[in-house]
Amino acid sequence: MQQHKVIIIGSGFGGQASAVNLRRIGIEDFLILERRSWMGGTWSQNSYPGAAVDVQSPLYSLSFEPYKWTQMFAEQDELVEYTNHVLAKHGLREKTQLNANVTQVKWLEDKALWEVQTESQGTFYGQFLINASGPLSTPVIPAFKGRDTFQGHSFHTNAWDHGYDYKGKRVAIIGSGASAAQVIPAIAPDVAKLDVFQRTPHWVLPRPDRVFSKLERALLGSKLVYKALRTIIYWALESRVVGFKYSTTMLKLVAERPALKHIRTQLKDPKLQAAVTPDYTIGCKRVILSSTLYPALARPNVSLHTRDDAIAEINERGILTTKGKQIDLDLIVYSTGYDATDGVISYPVIGKGGVTVADKWREYPRAYLGTTLPGFPNLFVVTGPNTGIGHTSAIFVIEAQMEYIRRAIQAVQARQGKAIEVKADAENDYTAMIHKEMKQTVWQSGGCHSWYQSKSGHVIAMFPGFSFTFRQMAKAFKPQHHQFR
């Protein structure tokens, strides 16, 4: 029987933060389960051309592990280097079971343990269970008519096939979000023809990137300088919440006007300008940072298809549009996003009395502090419902969740107990507050439908306020909101 104090599912930044924080409270008996044959999460998985972070690297990093970044917005290969640095420095590879694809977890009430079943590595047991599989781990490909009949090559950006040479080929990219905005400029110069299918345009702002000099990189090696730079970046980004929630006037002045200017500056064709100009408030969907997307769309070998010329069906040769135009293709790239709301946890989770998380989330996903659910003792969900952030680093929120998880586990240990479970009324009150606050935000009232929303229409991916507010709530552990066993 493979039993541990804590089992962590996922080895990305959420899993890494969980492991290091467990050690901070003296817990060494933990095991990380990783479904792939390698560790690292999102940035090890997403290796498509042009992949890079859209938050400044000194802030998009674990607070306890500064790094001498080469540029302000790190590219995928450097993010992988950073991930490997963290894994090696903290000895996390030795605490990980690879190829452990979790198929089901179940709470065993009589033993006060979580039973974790995997596809090929057997069954594991843990007193505490931390799901850190991440919200961007379950890619989605819409069921286009005839999708499976295509005789060419196809894949999702999440699983880029580096064995396929796209140079000189006829390529279609389906989607126009953050991943597509990075792939399009990266491959457009090398393909014979690129057809981009855009359902809804995104607002785009210039990307203020810069390469750090040798001196600047040396200064980043100082914890004091690194912390100071993180602090400056943090508060500059945090000010965006004022626009997203409290002042649409500010949002238009500091974001929408520059975005419109960016369109006019980079695109001279009035038809193309109109095609990429959104009809909703900036921020309602994820804002893209790119100084290369619009010039790529204006290339002579690139065609942008909008709702007026959408996909009618996919056939053996390629794509037939709603205008009746047949586009013959060698490669279709699906940049169609992830199930980041209703599919936050990709495997069945069975709690007390046989009730599943899917049952609890039938209407929409919800959790106390976005982290734990009534009826599921000792279960913590990293980047759970309403913990996403549209203006700053997701890692900041992950580390805020660690404040709560540490305190919850310590509360059990202090009582020499077996389990902790949030009370239903505490979760209800928290969730009611979240969605009341959400009504004021651009994500709820900005006039768009985005992946931030679940099928119910509730905004599930985002936290409706300042990230420091969430961190304060996570740190202020309330024993009265929980029951102990």
Secondary structure elements and their pairing?
Elements (H helix, E strand, L loop, with lengths): L1 E8 L3 H12 L5 E4 L8 H4 L30 H14 L6 E2 L4 E7 L4 E6 L4 E9 L21 E4 L13 E5 L3 H10 L5 E5 L6 E2 L8 H7 L2 H16 L1 H7 L1 H19 L3 H7 L11 E2 L3 H5 L4 E4 L5 E4 L3 E4 L4 E3 L2 E4 L14 E2 L6 H4 L18 E3 L12 H21 L5 E3 L1 H15 L3 H4 L21 H9 L6 E3 L1
Parallel strand pairs: 1-2, 1-6, 2-3, 4-17, 6-18, 7-16, 8-9, 8-16, 9-12, 10-11
Antiparallel strand pairs: 4-5, 5-6, 13-14, 14-15, 19-20
Helix pairs in contact: 1-12, 7-8, 12-15
Describe this structure in words.
This protein has two domains: 2-39 and 92-137 and 339-484, FAD/NAD(P)-binding domain (3-Layer(bba) Sandwich), CATH 3.50.50.60; 147-202 and 239-334, FAD/NAD(P)-binding domain (3-Layer(bba) Sandwich). It has 15 helices and 20 strands. It has helices spanning 13-24, 42-45, 76-89, 178-187, 214-220, 223-238, 240-246, 248-266, 270-276, 293-297, 357-360, 394-414, 424-438, 442-445, 467-475; strands at 2-9, 30-33, 96-97, 102-108, 113-118, 123-131, 153-156, 170-174, 193-197, 204-205, 288-289, 302-305, 311-314, 318-321, 326-328, 331-334, 349-350, 379-381, 420-422, 482-484. Helix 1 (13-24) runs parallel beside helix 12 and helix 12 packs parallel to helix 15 (467-475). The longest helix is centred in the C-terminal third of the chain and has 21 residues, at 394-414. It is globular. The mean pLDDT is 95.
